[in-house]
Amino acid sequence: MELFGILILGAFAVNFNLRHYTFYFSMVFIFLTTFLIPLHIFLKRSPLLWVLNLLTKDIATMKVVLYWLICSCLAALVILRHRKMAGKATSAERKIFHILAIAVYVPGLMYECNLLYLGSGILLGIFFLLEMLRNLTIPPLGNLLQESFTALKDEKDAGILAVTPIYLLTGFTLPLWIHPSPCDLTDSAFFNFLPLMSGILSVGVGDTAASVFGSKYGKHFYPDSQKTIEGTLASILCQLLSVYILCQIGYIVNMDLFLVIRVTVAIVFSSLIEALTDQIDNLILPLIMYIMLV
């Protein structure tokens, strides 16, 4: 419903040339009629109060939400910093957003899976809404978003849509979206924790390690590519180390020889795919690893 409302808003904004206050009035009206009112009927209660209760249900949840807000503020500061700097950000510099995403998703999966599931869907809608503001240059955010996009865009953002943040969010959350009952905290949930980490491991840990270590220490390049063998090795080792840490803290149990081999093969295979893929790797890698782990 959320994305459907944004699609309607985009169609109205383009066809009726909505700008300034008319755009925001239309946004509120469409949000009410396509999202808030239907959700109110479905839940038989106020969805806003329902979300508020979910955010404040106990002290532990409030601590996680506060921690997520701090991570969001750090991301905003990074964007503002790069906006003021001359020149475009490098691939390694953009990986700070991968690290911040890891910082959000790992505690979310461990302690507030349902809230993470809900928040990821809402954030996807916000990303599309911000893209609409940027492309239509809707004040007061349109120009600010365009300047930030110019400073941080990479080769994947060749069209009108800034696909990199959308791909990053989707890659991290895709295993959570497609896994059956991902937040079911039963006895088997710890075993299911590993497939849910597919996006975090392949994109958050592996892709980041490959980019940072490859750009600093890489000397042996793949044919017709700027990616290096050293980056791939760093990707594999960092992912294996992450799985080992999860085992040590008790979030992956029953780690027998078969599962060790399967995890290792999945990590090596996805790392090789990352080395040979230039486009949409943030979407491909989590899906490949999830299929191999689930």
Give a written overview of the molecule.
It is a multi-pass membrane protein. It comes from Cryptolaemus montrouzieri. The chain crosses the membrane at residues 23-43, 64-82, 115-137, 158-178, 190-213, 233-253, 259-277. With 294 residues, this protein is mostly helical. Helix content is 76%, strand content 0%. The protein contains 14 helices and no strands. It has helices at 2-15, 20-43, 47-55, 59-84, 91-94, 96-111, 113-135, 142-152, 163-178, 189-196, 198-217, 229-248, 257-276, 281-293. It is globular and about 60 Å long. The chain starts with a helix and ends with a helix.
The percent of residues in helical segments reads over 70%
Q: Helical stretch count?
A: 14
Q: What is the overall pLDDT average?
A: 85
Q: List unreliable stretches of 5+ residues.
A: 187-191
Order of helices and strands: HHHHHHHHHHHHHH
Question: Biggest β-sheet: count, sense, barrel?
Answer: none
* Cα gyration radius (Å): 20 Å
Structural class: mainly alpha
